[in-house]
Design goal:
By secondary structure, this protein is an alpha/beta fold. The protein is 62% helix and 6% strand. The longest helix has 40 residues. It is globular and about 85 Å long.
Amino acid sequence: MDMLTDKRIERLVKLIHFIGAKENCTKAEIRKTLACSDRTVDYTIKELEKELQQTGTDMAIVRNAHNQYSFSNKDDRQLNEVLRRLFFQDDMVRFIGCSLSGRLSVDSFIQKHFLSRSTFFRKLHKIKPLLHAFHLRFEPRTFKLIGKEHHIRIFYFCFFWEVTGSGIAWPFSIEKQFAKQLFAPIAKAMKLNLSSLQTERFLYWIAIQWLRVKQGHFTDLYDEAFPSDLQTKMLAHAGELLKTVPENIRSSEVQFLLIILLNSPFLYHDAELVASNLAANQLHRTEEWRATRRFARALKKWFSNALDEEAAQRMEGHLLQIHRNKRYFSVNYSSFKERIQLDVLQERHPLITEGVFAAFEKVLAEEMVPFLQMDQAALLIRYILLVYTFADIEKLNEPLNIHIFSSEGPVYEQKLSKRMNAALPYHLNVQTSVTYTRDKAEMPAFIVTDTLFPYHEKVDVVYIQSPPTNQDWRRIQQHCEKHHKRAIESILLKRKEQQETEHLFKREMNGG
């Protein structure tokens, strides 16, 4: 957490993100994450418990019978409020937060926060790696950020979004209602369909752009690979936002808006806008388009049974958005929250992450793509979410075969089969006593029955009541989860064996 200079606060922030993402974690996992002793882990947990008590809710840290820690009565909004309160206890977070105004006085900041000059400069030195990740530095005399304008803006966005995002607090001097008025005609012109959180994200961008432009800071032109009709439309509807920008450089600010809106990595556009963006980049043969084509082919090959043509086209269009945004900003920063999220995604969606990682490595092995070398945690998260959004996840592995046998007969079994498919978040192939006999069904993962059933050493039998109780449904779900995990492990093992065989074959073909 490079923006934090206070180790105590850093541990508390990491602990919130870690327990929140993992849901259940051991003390050993916490100790490894915080890089501290067991004693410090205990102390940090107690400190966080005190912070949670100040929220006025029932939220708390609890330890289960397996010595795993989790949040009880978890409230994400209250957790974000705790995070904001912790962030602003750090001197450098307060200093960076003040710097956007352009009227920052180091002497007044030191006096206001009771810091010595030596302490201030020692802490300022600690955030140098953070600034370097954004290709920035503080000017020694004025303490203004020095670097390219679009790097300064992405720095402020990442900073404020991490500290005050998700609608917890509005951190800018510009009124939020005014930012909404600036953004509304742009969103309407582009026909953006946004959630409240997406809208909040773009309002942050609009506020930062407005404040920087007002101070006389403008971005450079990027390239011409934008749909021309969209650039014209943006010029027409962003007049209030860009009215203080000289006409001869207004196009660069329009391109900045198109990068954060048209090429947002967090926004799924309609098919028409996706096709228009792809066509503009194909026409100019941009580096991002070439990388997108190679990566899309690798993903299609890996997930061939889970992607139809329409989904593949939408996925390629969104890949281009990710790559355009990534190359434009080219920063080498990912937050601790993003790094934890990537670890959790790898644990919970191994089939998707394996395919994404394999495709990513293949693209990088074929050709050096500089903008894909940086900040890979955030990039890989977007890839995984992209595949999850557009691929038919159920087709990534074979369905679980479950057999139902009931003393109530075939009609009841069929009804229960439908309810199981509707209630359980797994791809199921449920056979009843009739279909089992007629179709000569394969060996099931497990059998669900409300009657005495002959013992079968190779198949689990789940005995339930008729109709099933809540406890019965929980037991059925637990068995689904267990066998689903086994199926994934089997697929991954087969793929690993296949890759090893292919590797040995290549070595033999190349003469050892």
